[in-house]
Q: What sequence folds into this?
């Protein structure tokens, strides 16, 4: 596989051509797997009217890292599709809530497993699926359900993406990826659902074949651009979380 | 919630964790439930699952030994037990929807005697915070809830019917509060254990649905 390398020179270059109105997913669950450096680059790049997909909009933990709430604050976002528009604990408000409640940004609130499966389906050629999740709740009101083998299920549609921004521990120049521990989360699914997947990589990028075929988590088939994260402070790395006051 | 009556947060987590059976796959939600993995439940084959795809994690990592890329549902750095595995989110929620979780333990704002509970949206709030709660509530074999028995203004969180939007209906099997351990029966709550220093009448007065009590009501045994 002597294809051209997917390694690009920097984060600015990796996001330079992203047009206004794109749908972009951001990997990560809490800090692991979150593409902090690509978020910062997109803040500087300035694309507007974006639809963002992520587990949460960020800002619930301290220290605050680059998060998609900052893209909202920066006026770049039309809509967010996520599992949290408000904090888990009302005492720890997240920055996004204020913009959402003021009507400055739209949101589609999706249960976390449904969000993951909608992207898995998009990447796997499944247009829609039935799930038991959210049946009987406010989220299911007015929507299509179906009883299968005596149980009620809710119809959910695939969620295709223009771009996926993710983080991985290791990559080769073909784009094969390995994740470390909880870095994996949504990231492999987002890669399959996106037309263009951009990856920030912790370790020096290996020549093609540098990851044994048996050890690849995400095939380079799904990966288009790779950027190695430089050491701090130039690059942004997961920080130790500060515990909140009880 | 220092100063509140009855059990503290870790003791509430311990009370729920002591109900786990050997061999169960247990999912712990954000907040007090994550503290269940700190409970010493002896030499049991409990497997802790976290929605972000961690199967087989253990206690919170000791200061200075944290792997910043290894977190539980609450974003705390945890440790792995021998035999642990990591999967992606679609597989993790496949585990959940596929019925492979024996119990999910979650926090809540309210729980009803019919087994409904509410934990994603406050009254009058636009949107909310669902996370994985609806997937877990709909699909785990059992749901345990841990919550403060009353709100700050003293009204009961154990109710005849939830008045907040529910997360799922009819799924709660056990409720651990700072006042004890309760089972929703459909028409009320059956108290299985009472926190030290409380009377049944005090608990009944703080409960928003009929309260019955098991024979020879045990007092919660506190660790250490």
A:
């Amino acid at each position: 596989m002597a294809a051209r390398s997917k390694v690009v020179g920097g984060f600015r270059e990796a996001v330079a051509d992203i047009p206004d109105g794109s749908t972009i997913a951001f990997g990560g669950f809490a800090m692991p797997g979150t593409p902090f450096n690509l978020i910062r680059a997109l803040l500087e790049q300035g694309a507007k009217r974006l639809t963002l997909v992520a587990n949460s909009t960020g800002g619930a933990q301290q220290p605050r890292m680059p998060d998609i709430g900052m893209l909202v604050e920066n006026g770049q976002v039309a809509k967010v599709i996520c599992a949290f528009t408000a904090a888990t604990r009302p005492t720890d408000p997240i920055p996004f809530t204020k913009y959402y409640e003021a009507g400055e940004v739209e949101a589609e609130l999706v249960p976390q497993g449904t969000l993951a499966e909608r992207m898995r389906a998009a990447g796997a050629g499944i247009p829609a699926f039935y799930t038991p999740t959210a049946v009987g709740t406010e989220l299911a009101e007015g929507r299509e359900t179906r009883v299968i083998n005596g149980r009620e299920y809710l119809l959910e549609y695939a969620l295709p993406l223009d771009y996926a921004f993710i983080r991985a521990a290791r990559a080769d120049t073909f784009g094969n990826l390995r994740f470390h521990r909880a870095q994996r989360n949504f990231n492999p699914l987002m890669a399959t659902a996106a037309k263009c997947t951009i990856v920030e990589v912790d370790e020096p990028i290996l020549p093609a074949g540098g990851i044994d075929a048996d050890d690849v988590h995400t095939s380079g088939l799904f990966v288009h651009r790779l950027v190695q994260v430089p050491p701090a402070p130039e690059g942004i790395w997961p920080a130790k979380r500060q515990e909140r006051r009880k | 919630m220092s100063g509140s009556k009855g059990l503290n947060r870790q003791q509430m987590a311990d009370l729920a964790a002591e109900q786990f059976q050997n061999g169960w796959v247990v999912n712990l939600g954000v907040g007090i439930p994550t503290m269940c993995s700190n409970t010493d439940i002896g030499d049991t084959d409990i497997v802790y699952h976290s929605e972000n795809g961690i199967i087989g994690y253990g206690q919170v990592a000791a200061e200075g030994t944290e792997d910043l890329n290894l977190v539980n549902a609450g974003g705390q750095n945890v440790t792995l037990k021998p035999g642990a595995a990591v999967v992606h989110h679609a597989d993790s929620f496949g585990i959940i929807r596929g019925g492979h979780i024996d119990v999910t333990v979650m926090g809540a704002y309210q729980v009803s005697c019919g087994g409904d509970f509410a934990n994603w949206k406050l009254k009058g709030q636009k949107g909310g915070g669902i996370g994985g709660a609806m997937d877990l509530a709909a699909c785990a074999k059992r749901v345990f809830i841990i919550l403060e028995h009353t709100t700050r203004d003293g009204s009961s969180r154990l109710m005849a019917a939830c008045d907040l939007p529910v997360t799922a209906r009819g799924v709660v099997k056990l409720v651990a509060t700072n006042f004890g351990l309760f089972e929703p029966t459909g028409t009320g709550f059956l108290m299985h254990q009472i926190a030290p220093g409380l009377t049944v009448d005090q608990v009944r007065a703080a409960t928003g649905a009929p309260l019955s009590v098991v024979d020879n009501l045990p007092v919660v045994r506190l660790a250490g």
